[in-house]
Amino acid sequence: MKFFKITTFVVAILLLCVAAWFFSANSNNTTKSTLLIQAISDSQSLNTIKDTVTSSINNIIKEELGLDKNYDFEFFIPKQLNRLTLYYVQDIMKKGEEDLFSALTFLNTSEAPDAAVITADARLFGEQQDELVIIIADPVKELAGLNTEIKTAVHQVQQQYKRQHNLDLYNRTKSEQFPYLPHIGLGRVRLSSIQEHIKDAAQVDEIVNRIRERIIKLTQEVIVKTITDENNRLDFNKVSILNLQKKDYVKEYKFKS
Known about the structure:
- There is one protein chain.
- The relative contact order is 0.21.
- This protein has 257 residues and is an alpha+beta fold.
- It has helices at 2-30, 44-64, 97-103, 142-165, 172-175, 191-196, 204-226; strands at residues 32-41, 76-78, 82-93, 117-125, 131-137, 183-189, 236-243, 248-254.
- The strands form two sheets. Strands 3-1-7-8 form a four-stranded antiparallel β-sheet. A four-stranded antiparallel β-sheet has the order 2-6-5-4, covered by helices on one side.
- The protein folds into two domains: 1-26; 31-254, Cyclic phosphodiesterase (Cyclic Phosphodiesterase, Chain: A, Alpha-Beta Complex), CATH 3.90.1140.
């Protein structure tokens, strides 16, 4: 009887291990992520603009909320890197990520774009209009060309994956829902935190809209004061792939030097 109990216990443990392994393997095959294929720039001009607007934007927001300038909270968070997204890959199957990475190895032999120009066109992007960006001019269509090359490569991987698995590798419709417009993010406005600091709910929209207008005006003024014909061009040294869920870069390609 004792041997039977031990045997039953061992079998139960083995079955649980097999079930856990199966669940893990199946989960890895169906897990989806959003990847951003981004060109990275070390532009000192962009860094100067970010440094200048960050404190001023926080002061604007605190003023509009009736807070002291020394109030210990940052309502605007600057981006650490100057990242220009070349293509969005929405809802990609984890199982097919390596196929995508392989298809993009041509970037290692691609010429780095060197004609892109910083403009004074500042906007707020995103569903909540909380991402402060600068529009980047693409006079000789280098960035548009890279976007097309990457798009073509990803489409081919999509077709191969679908033939093999009878499933889409990623959500192409969602990935290409907006026309390609080169831009670089300066930082994020913590909109929900702003709203939480407004006591009168009836004034939320009015105050938030006023803050947005002042942020755009300030940013455009800073760009005009900072950018000249000598420092308005952007240099890109590599392309990195950002996993939005992990908030980390998972692959990198260096442009041909």
